[in-house]
Structure formats: C-alpha cells, structure tokens
Amino acid sequence: xxxxxxxxxxxxxxxxxxxxxxxxxxxxxxxxxxxxxxxxxxxxxxxxxxxxxxxxxxxxxxxxxxxxxxxxxxxxxxxxxxxxxxxxxxxxxxxxxxxxxxxxxxxxxxxxxxxxxxxxxxxxxxxxxxxxxxxxxxxxxxxxxxxxxxxxxxxxxxxxxxxxxxxxxxxxxxxxxxxxxxxxxxxxxxxxxxxxxxxxxxxxxxxxxxxxxxxxxxx
Length: 219
Prior knowledge:
Elements (H helix, E strand, L loop, with lengths): L1 E4 L4 E6 L6 E7 L2 E10 L3 H14 L4 E6 L2 E8 L1 H4 L7 H25 L1 H18 L7 H9 L13 H19 L5 H4 L8 H13 L8
Parallel strand pairs: 1-5
Antiparallel strand pairs: 2-3, 3-4, 4-6, 5-6
C-alpha cells in the first residue's frame, strides 16, 4: 500500500487494551497502523517480501517504513475496534491462534535445544509441508516466516484457516517435531505455552484438542 520515510509519518504509543504494556502506532494521513515486524537495515529484501505478502496476497492495508537503520512493516487498524477484537473471531480463529502458539513453541524449543541451524532447517521443512498441503496464506517462505514471528493473539494477523486446516497443520507439525526431537515427548510441555491465550479461549482450544484426532498427539 505505502512505502514511506520517517519524515512522512508520526509515531506514538498507546496503552494496549488487552495487555499491560504500551503499543507503538504509526499515523499517516488520518490512518492508524500498528507495528507488525521490524527488520535490520541489511534485511531490506525480507522486509519488502513480507510487505508484498501482506498487501498483494492477503489484501492487507500496510505501510513499509524505511529508516536509515531499519525497516518496519505496519498494519492498518481502527482504534475504536482495538479493545473488542479478541473473542470476536469465532472458534476457527481460536483454534488457529492455539496452533500458531504451538508452532512458535516448537520452533523456539528447536532453536534453544538443537541450535539456530536446525531451527532454520525446521523453518524450511515446515514451509515445504505447508506448500504441499496448500494451507491458506501459508504457502510461501515469507508467509511462514510471518507465522513464526507474528503475535497470534493479534486477531488481525491470523490466516483464514478453517477447522480442517488446523487439524492438518497440527498433525504435520507433530510429525515434523517428532523427526527433529527423535520422540514425541516434546509435545507435552509445549501445550503449557498456551498460557498467553485468554482463559476462555485457551479452555476452548484445549477442550477441542482433547476431542479431536490430535488428542493422542498433543496432551
């Protein structure tokens, strides 16, 4: 949508309505954008790839901000909706949130326990799997990188997955995690990483998980 310089915009911060922390926002021509991702000055190609993925593939209204020492991508929001976003995205959105938190937990565990090289290989492998399965908004390297880094609790940024997509995703994630760790033990502590979800949504996700085909995989 827009590629802008720092002098073109105004950046401030507001209190996040769901968390006890400030949230940076960018103002441009009467529109408000929230920070999605930050890149180093040397990562211009990655920044542009994410910006194009969001604008061209997902139809999002986004700003790519060019600064001397960094690039950043910002997504359009309406401030009056910010406080009521969570909880308005339906069951499929809750299932998607939970599954992306599990993805990020597995990725971080691989990086912590097996090293950065294995984490990079995992990212490459999960990208290929999602491309083969044709999951919506998850078939390119840029899209998968975004899924690994985004905040799943930001409902604006969720891919448009249905329940069947989430089931496929969790089955493939478990299979791949088992390959990297050598056994299925990794899956059990990972579920503890859902603590960031609001209580009601976490309960809904875990209840669904226990009744789904993945109940024996993710416990």
